[in-house]
Write a structure and sequence with these properties.
mainly beta, 7-stranded mixed beta sheet, 11 strands, globular
Length: 125
């Protein structure tokens, strides 16, 4: 059974950092790419970043490039999202996701196969 458990959200001041973690049980990283979506209040869900562990291929949404870094630890079945220089536009519920579709530099072009429960990130200005 696939379980995606995200943690690490919270309230943070603009300009500061947070690191999100997601334990991906039942998700072999040699079969799945993993990533993060977010949904801001009143907006649709969007892909923030994803990674294919086998070759390190990554995707980042333009607005987070240079500020966010995704990484995966196969031994711990965990994917991380290091978020630096946060701003108010980053306020959202962040969801961990997994998909057998390869994550290229263009990201995923469909809804993810698996989506975990979210963790709320609130950035105060």
């Amino acid at each position: 059974e696939v379980q995606l458990q995200a943690s690490g959200g919270g309230l943070v001041q603009a300009g500061r950092s947070l690191r999100l973690s997601c334990v991906a049980s039942g998700v072999p990283f040699d079969e799945y790419a993993v990533g993060w979506f977010r949904q801001a209040p009143g907006k649709g869900r969007e892909l923030v970043s994803c990674i294919t562990d086998s070759d390190g291929s990554t995707y980042y949404k333009d607005s987070v490039k240079g500020r966010f870094t995704i990484s995966s630890d196969n031994a711990k079945s965990t994917v991380y999202l290091q978020m630096n220089r946060l701003n108010a536009e980053d306020t959202a519920v962040y969801y961990c996701a997994a998909d057998r579709l390869y994550c290229s530099r263009y990201g995923w072009k469909r809804d993810p196969e698996k989506l975990g429960r979210g963790t709320l990130v609130t950035v105060s200005s």
